[in-house]
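> tool_call: predict_assembly(chains=two)
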Amino acid sequence: MQAVEGPRTELLERLRAQVAAKEARIRPCPYPVPAELAALLPDGGLKAGAAYSLAASGALLLALLAEPSREGHWCGVVGMPEFGAEAAGHAGIALDRLALVPDPGDQWLASTAALTEALPVVAVRPPGRVGEGEAARLMSRLRDRGGVLLVHGPWPRAEAQLSLGAVRWSGVGDGHGHLTSREVTVTVSTRRTPVPRSARLVLPTPDGRLARLAEPVPVEQRLGLMAVG
Amino acid sequence: MGGDRCLVLWFPGWAVTAWAMSEGTDPAAPIAVVAANRVVACSPEASAEGVVTGMRKREAQSRCPNLAVLAVDEARDVREFSAVVDCIERLSPGVQVVRPGVCALRSRGFAGYVGSEAEAAEVLLEAVVTGLGVTTGRVGVADGLFAALQAAYAGDPVRIVPAGGSPAFLAPLPVSRLGDESLSALLPRLGVHTLGDFAALGGDAVRDRFGQHGQRLHTLASGLDPSRVQPRVPPPELTRQLEFEPPLALIDQVAFTIKATVEDFIAGLTAAGLACTELRVEITGELDELVARSWLTPGVFEAAAVIDRVRWQLQAAAGSRLHSAVTGVRLEPVVVDALANHVPGLFGSGTDERVHHVLSRVQGMLGHDGVVTPRIGGGRWLAERQVLVAWGDRPSVGQGSGEAPVARPWPGMVPDPLPASVFTEPRPVQVLAADGSPVTLDERVRLSGPPAVLRDGDARLRVLNWAGPWPVDERAWDPARHRCASRFQVVDEAGTGWLLVLQGARWWAEARYD
């Protein structure tokens, strides 16, 4: 009995490994995100052919664009005239692979659809409410091309919603100092996981990037001046 | 015997004439063109003052104090000389450009047609004078290119050496005319002063002493120049021009009418094996307006892209620089490249090619400035540091040439981290103190009170923390661009950071940390 059991489990293991390898080949590899955010997202990255809805467009968007850009992908930003290019450069986005369409006006959907043809990661801020039909047409195109859409604002049938909360800036006081870093709670709620996941992160750090919040270091109580002698 | 009868046209001091032609001025003033601190060409007025070629720049200036000194520009010389060659080619084909300022042609055919060699020379000189207004031309006709060139240098406007007379004509000329520095220094020391003396030496002796090069010069000196005129192939005409009669008033009409011309323009380039990467479009209006600009593309211009460029140029110019109907469009390729470098690959084109197609399509929808790529330049204000370059245009700042390089220190610049949202137009806001009065600065940069409330449009946000003022005072030397303001950083109750600017008594939001 035991002699039969051994080869069988081995065979099963081998078959499972083969199936997993096939599946991995069929399923498109997700676009990378920083490790701090990967833990929150269901696929550990931005899933190709999906749309993500962001509650804020600033540093969070830059952090999401940075990793795909570093991998050599082109990024597009539609309808955000105030996109801070220098901060984007500091966040790690390659500016020579970044195309901006600051004011598409009524043509925002057509521009976005065109950009998704060749740019794998496109961020967009719709000027108003987005209809289900419009969104579905764009999404089918996106699935076909294997791109990712990052939307500032609500989006029908988004893969995940990312929001920021409990913001605390450090470095600035009442009339002194300057903004150095920001602690935020990033919350990701998806259709698949009913319970939102969240993490406390530093976004941006003093050099404009994303980092895990360092454990608070206990400050050694130092003695004041003492009269001696 | 030597080569066939040659006719050489020489334009003394061509560099000066070329400069005058490109600048559209009259070369009547004393002008000298200088290369490596030596005069290489000068105008007749400068020669009259005693400036000669080969003279040092300072010496030339001391002889002629009002001398205008120009740097040598070979590209300009060649460019302007092509107009002269075109002018001559209209009368007689088969022109060889020896160097800018000197061209040669076979005299037999043209002289036979006009009547005599003297008349042929007169006709050619006259054509250049009437066509381009260049009066400095001289002609030499002789057997062989070298002798004809020496005849042109002889000083008369037209000098004709009779057939078979080249050796006798060359004999009294100094050996320096061979144009070989080491030989013209050495031969006089050997007692050989003229070309005739040099030609009288035995051919074998010259070859033994001076090698093959010396033997060739010996043949030239003997008037037996074997080289023939090698006519240039006239370059194909790539520029296309279309006149509208009657003038067209609608952009769509222009775009539709030029379609055939643009396709012909692209076909002409393709037939020549060329791909256009920079294009100049000139649009003329009924009121003699000229709207011209150059367009670049990272790829290759195709017919649809050229029509788009014409359309964009008309849209940008309409109402501002163009107030009348369009009478003509001229397309000129500025930079061309071998077509072979732009052939799509066998297995599809690369990512960047696809990106270019898509971005060009979006530009077609939104206009040329609809798609931009950011570059970081210098400056103290965030909005002026990010330079948005339309897709396909050449960036004017950055690593290349630019007036505000990013690498310089910019005191007064905001410290890191930089705000993720920068308002291209400053956004008007209000900052109020706790008692509701607007916060101001006095002349000693003291605040009237700590900021307590930020009003952004209708929103009324409580200020949690703030820092500042940080004065920025720039370009105090330029009254038009002088700017003096104070910056603040403010965190509102929602946790959003703001970069505010107080200029005079008005508050603006420059950027937002979100």
